[in-house]
Design a protein that fits this description.
Elements (H helix, E strand, L loop, with lengths): L2 H8 L21 E7 L4 E5 L15 E7 L4 H10 L4 H8 L6 E5 L2 E12 L1 E11 L3 E6 L7 H9 L8 H36 L3 H21 L2 H9 L8 H66 L15 H22 L4
Parallel strand pairs: 3-7
Antiparallel strand pairs: 1-2, 1-3, 4-5, 5-6, 6-7
Length: 351
């Protein structure tokens, strides 16, 4: 967590519960509200420049999806909360972008918080909050750009969603987020494979930094997704009248996907934990190879150095000094010793 975020969080200290303060990084210049209204026969989509444009949609028999991009504008969030009867404590959770995934049933309303992940080099995440009523879903995002274009296209073309109520829309949005997790995991899998090859072939100091960076990303990924299992399980078993039994089976499918994601994350965590040992072992093996080569070279030259040292002594009456073939004989002996040691090392498979 950045110190800037910590400073903003400290501003809430001592304030009454339900005090609305944005906690987190401002990720867009201006809040943007888009509205999609639909039923089985009709569909409409527009951008709300004025919150009064939402008024006719509250009690409409159509399902409304109100999406808010940019929650730094506390006034906008507060007005939407007042219009849709969202409790101030819930709005406080919406504005605090450091929430863990959770689900709360508030009478005739359901509140869900999830994490949407992005990976563009580094892993980043944003908080997405859903507030669900009988015929509407309000989604709060930190900035523009999401994974819901497929849901929007299905609404526009009338495939499936327009025949169902707001609970099915909630399922479709959550399912899009969970499907995006699989794409994130694929990217992590590619990073892990590349890093494993690097560790085995050419480990370096940068390799250690990459291992530590990958380990931090895995921890962040796990922290963002692990609580999702409880959220989806709660929606599947919810007794709220908003969640129809016919939708429960779809949430069960998302639950299965969530378990797959969590299992994959745990596997990746184990792999990354073992990478450090593999890295150290690889460095140790390389060092052993270097030391073995140096030792062999030193072993070969030790007897040669001994011979050269003996005949380098300046004694006048050394018997071999006046021998005509002494110089080539010494070279022959030295070459023979080196060849014999080399052949011995090869026989032992040390070379």
């Amino acid at each position: 967590m950045k110190s800037k975020s910590k400073g903003r969080l400290s501003r809430k200290s001592g304030l009454p519960p339900g005090t609305l303060i944005h906690v987190g990084e401002r990720k867009t210049d201006k809040s943007r509200i888009t509205v999609i209204n639909y039923d089985e026969k009709d569909y409409g989509e527009f951008e709300a420049e004025d919150l009064n444009q939402l008024l006719p949609e509250k009690d409409s028999p159509k399902v409304s999806w109100i999406n808010v991009d940019g929650i730094h504008d506390v006034g906008v969030v507060e007005k939407i909360g007042g219009y849709f009867d969202i409790h101030p404590l819930v709005l406080e959770d919406v504005l605090n972008t450091q929430q863990r995934p959770k689900k709360e049933e508030l009478g005739e309303r359901v509140f869900v918080v999830l994490r949407l992940l992005h990976i563009n080099g580094d892993l980043s995440s944003e908080q997405i909050s859903f507030f669900v009523g009988e015929n509407f879903v309000v989604s709060f995002q930190e900035h523009e750009g999401d994974v819901f274009n497929g849901v929007r296209d299905r609404i526009r073309t009338g495939r499936g969603i327009r025949k169902r109520k707001a609970d099915y829309l909630l399922y479709a949005l959550i399912d899009s987020i969970v499907d995006n997790y699989f794409l994130i995991l694929e990217r992590f899998g590619e990073r892990i494979e590349a890093l494993e090859d690097e560790i085995l072939e050419n480990p370096s100091n940068q390799t250690m930094q990459r291992i530590q960076g990958l380990r931090k990303d895995i921890i962040s990924l796990r922290r963002s997704i692990w609580p999702l299992r409880e959220v989806i399980s709660g929606l599947e078993r919810s007794e709220s009248p908003l969640i129809k039994k016919s939708t429960g089976i779809y949430f069960r499918d998302v639950y299965d996907h969530t378990i797959q994601v969590i299992d994959t994350i745990e596997s990746y965590r184990d792999i990354v934990s073992g990478m450090l040992d593999t890295y150290l072992s690889s460095l140790s093996n390389r060092m052993n190879e270097v030391m073995k080569t140096l030792t062999i070279i030193a072993t070969i030259f030790i007897p040669l150095t001994f011979i050269a040292g003996v005949y380098g002594m300046n004694f006048k009456h050394m018997p071999e000094l006046d021998y005509r073939y002494g110089y080539p004989l010494i070279w022959f002996i030295m070459a023979g010793v080196a060849a014999a040691l080399t052949a011995y090392f090869k026989k032992k498979r040390w070379l």
